[in-house]
Amino acid sequence: MSDPSHPEPLRKQNHPRALAARAKRRAEAEAAGVDAAFISDLVERFYEGIRTDAVLGPIFARHIADWPPHLARMKAFWRSILHNSAEFSGNPMQRHAAVHEAGSELGEAEFARWLRLFYATCEALAAERGLDRAAARQVNERARMIADSLLTGIATREHGLTAARAGDGLPKP
Ligand code: HEM
User: Crossing angle for the helix pair 36-51 and 108-128, nearest 10 degrees?
Assistant: First the structure.
């Protein structure tokens, strides 16, 4: 039961400083052309490519039966990353480890392939929209950082701390 004499503490993500930082991040991304419409098209186009990829397509097909909710989730994820929108709550590390442990190899080769497709999609879309190359690069840098941490997490679960630099060989944008 909530006690009115002890109001709920302000959630961290709703703190005025957090709100201001989030608004600033979003405004900067939008000014560079990385707005919600760009993110939506990027996600749609990237997963269209993924689904027909000879290596990655079958992995996704094994785990995702219903694509529209996955795409909606991925758009919220990328808005959280690029606009700091704090609207995504999930557990990517746990989900990818589970995919790997269920028998779909998620190692350096697979993450490198994922990244190359992501970079190419993002660069092509940015060029079509007349965005600065630096804007696409920033998006791609974020993808690489996340891929690195997912790969490192999976490798560390499997091989212990000797795998701590697992992502070093991933392609750079
Ligand atoms: C080898 C590369 C990758 C493969 C094969 C892969 C595959 C998958 C699959 C099958 C799922 C659905 C899991 C489930 O719902 O049970 C998933 C979810 C997801 N993936 Fe990936 N992924 C890869 C790399 C990445 C990277 C690099 C990112 C981010 C930059 C990413 C972001 C996500 C997110 C945010 C989710 C949703 C997690 C959640 O619901 O908590 N994935 N991925």
Answer: 130
Pocket test for ligand 1, best of 43, 67, 88, 96 (most atoms within 8 A of CB): 96
SS (H, E, C) 100-139: HHCCCCCCHHHHHHHHHHHHHHHHHHHHHCCCCHHHHHHH
> Could you give the CA distance from residue 120 to residue 123 in angstroms, rounded to a whole number?
5
Contact (CB, 8 A) for 26 and 38: no
- pLDDT, tens digit, 9 for 90 and up, residues 68-123: 999 999 999 999 999 998 899 999 999 999 999 999 999 999 999 999 999 999 99
Taking CA atoms only, the protein residue closest to ligand 1 atom 21 is 96
- Pocket lining: 64 vs ligand 1, CB cutoff 6 Å: yes
In the predicted structure, residue 4 carries a pLDDT above the cut 70: no
Candidates 147, 139, 140; CA nearest to 166 is: 147
Regarding the beta carbon of 112 and ligand 1, being less than 6 Å apart is answered: no
Ligand 1: does its nearest atom lie under 6 Å from the Cβ of 90?
yes
CA 150 to centroid of ligand 1, rounded, Å = 9
